[in-house]
């Protein structure tokens, strides 16, 4: 019987909710590319309830315990005395969410001789040292597509809120003011601006589709080009690399995974090539940007605004400079963990566990690494230093 160690974010500070603003969430059967939403044999939770925090347990306890497995759920993940490190040595499966990542470093993997499956309840497995996992033959899987649309919606919201100066204007209302000139001195229309995405995968393409009706000019760069008919339909211009794309854009949104090719992609040099007064939105991963270079670009005005929900490390310390830099619209890592997204990734996590324990193949699109190599989505979208 297996031990499953699951790291989730803390419950709300005033306790696990007993009511919700809406009584249900819309049901979705499939994603825009035809992939089906998760298909577990059953679920033991109510879609629309909080599943991603400790008490929600991703709805997994009954299913795992009925099969004789042990489930340990904790939010305590940092340092050698954490519950995570104490429970790790005999765990077969580790489940973690990018919002509250249990960093599976090479050192931690070495302390976990039984570890066979690192499962991301969400998308983005960069909190796992993929090279170390590959060397050990650990399977790494994530719930591909489960929250891609959730993030795309968040990106559009953040682009509009920065360009239109929404957050400072809202603050004037909270402060009891009516300071119109203060609100609008940094407010523009998005219409006719040039907007580019770094990567046109599931999120990047969904962002392009959602922005098209705003009458903007669209741009993208990616390692693989979109089909010609999609480029034509969206009227989107392809650029062979990030540097050539950012020169043409007023707004840049980052939608690629964090891997060796993309770490610190947006450093002082890249930021300097952007149009002065550009907006940068990063909901992909904090480390794709150089932390201090972003602060410098906002202070100098090279960037007119920066928004996103991803930081390094997570949770971000109270003195992280992105909390206090000018003209930012940062949130904690929330875009992919709406209640709607949680229902999908909890079901996807269950589907992957059912396959794992029944000895059935995990869907190809969920795989990041398997059998000592990148696999599935991982082989397409990631790069490894070794393996
Ligand atoms: P996809 O795998 O569908 O798309 C990723 C895209 O990035 C692929 O098209 C890939 O290219 C492209 N890419 C990889 N490396 C590069 C590079 N060096 N330059 C340009 N493009 C590159 O994933 P999603 O769109 O669903 O998610 C993307 C990322 O967003 C995740 O990896 C995760 O980090 C982040 N994310 C954040 C969430 C949040 O809550 N904030 C939630 C979900 C995801 P190709 O495959 O063509 O080689």
Protein architecture, described:
By secondary structure, this protein is α/β, with parallel strands linked by helices. The protein folds into two domains: 3-146 and 337-375, NAD(P)-binding Rossmann-like Domain (Rossmann fold, 3-Layer(aba) Sandwich), CATH 3.40.50.720; 148-323, Rossmann fold, CATH 3.40.50. It has helices at 61-66, 83-87, 106-110, 130-136, 148-163, 166-174, 180-184, 202-211, 228-234, 242-246, 268-273, 291-300, 339-358, 376-381, and strands at residues 3-7, 70-74, 93-96, 117-120, 139-142, 194-198, 217-221, 236-238, 251-254, 278-282, 303-308, 328-330, 367-370, 373-374. The strands form two sheets. Strands 2-1-3-4-5-13-14 form a seven-stranded mixed beta sheet, sandwiched between helices. The protein has a seven-stranded parallel beta sheet with strand order 8-7-6-9-10-11-12. Helix 4 (130-136) links the parallel strand 4 and strand 5 (139-142). It starts with a strand and ends in a 6-residue tail after the last helix. The chain binds NADPH dihydro-nicotinamide-adenine-dinucleotide phosphate (NDP). NADPH dihydro-nicotinamide-adenine-dinucleotide phosphate binds at residues 122-124, 147-148, 151, 198-204, 221-224, 255-258, 261-262, 283-285, 309-310, 333, 335-336, 377, 380-381.
């Amino acid at each position: 019987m297996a031990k499953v160690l699951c790291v989730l974010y803390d419950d709300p500070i005033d306790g696990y909710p007993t009511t919700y603003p809406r009584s249900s969430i819309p049901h979705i059967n499939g994603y825009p590319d035809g992939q089906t939403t998760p298909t577990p044999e059953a679920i033991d939770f109510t879609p629309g309830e909080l599943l991603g925090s400790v008490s929600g347990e991703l709805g997994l306890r009954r299913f795992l315990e009925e099969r004789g497995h042990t489930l340990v759920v904790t939010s305590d993940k940092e340092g050698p005395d954490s519950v995570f490190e104490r429970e790790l040595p005999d765990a077969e499966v580790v489940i973690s969410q990018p919002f509250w990542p249990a960093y599976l470093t090479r050192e931690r993997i070495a302390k976990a001789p039984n570890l066979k499956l690192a499962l991301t309840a969400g998308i983005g497995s960069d909190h796992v040292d993929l090279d170390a996992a590959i060397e050990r033959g650990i399977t790494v899987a994530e719930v591909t597509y489960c929250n891609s649309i959730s993030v795309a919606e968040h990106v559009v919201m953040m682009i509009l809120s920065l360009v239109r100066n929404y957050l400072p204007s809202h603050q004037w209302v909270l402060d009891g003011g009516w300071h119109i000139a203060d609100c609008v001195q940094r407010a523009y229309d998005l219409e006719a601006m040039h907007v580019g995405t770094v990567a046109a995968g599931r999120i990047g393409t969904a962002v392009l589709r959602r922005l098209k009706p705003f009458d903007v000019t669209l741009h993208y760069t990616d390692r693989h080009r979109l089909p010609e008919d999609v480029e034509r339909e969206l009227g989107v211009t392809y650029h062979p690399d990030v540097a050539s794309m950012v020169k043409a854009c007023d707004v840049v949104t980052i939608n690629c995974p964090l891997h060796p090719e993309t770490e610190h992609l947006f450093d002082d040099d890249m930021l300097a090539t952007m149009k002065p007064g550009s907006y940068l939105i990063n909901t992909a991963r904090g480390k794709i940007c150089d932390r201090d270079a972003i602060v410098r670009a906002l202070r100098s005005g090279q960037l007119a605004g920066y928004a996103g929900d991803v930081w390094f490390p997570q949770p971000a310390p109270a003195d992280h400079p992105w909390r206090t830099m000018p003209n930012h619209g940062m949130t904690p890592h929330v875009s992919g963990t709406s209640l709607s997204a949680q229902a999908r990734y909890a079901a996807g996590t269950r589907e992957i566990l059912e396959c794992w324990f029944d000895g059935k193949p995990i869907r190809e699109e969920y795989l990041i690494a398997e059998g000592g190599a990148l696999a599935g989505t991982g082989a397409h979208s990631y790069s490894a230093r070794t393996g």
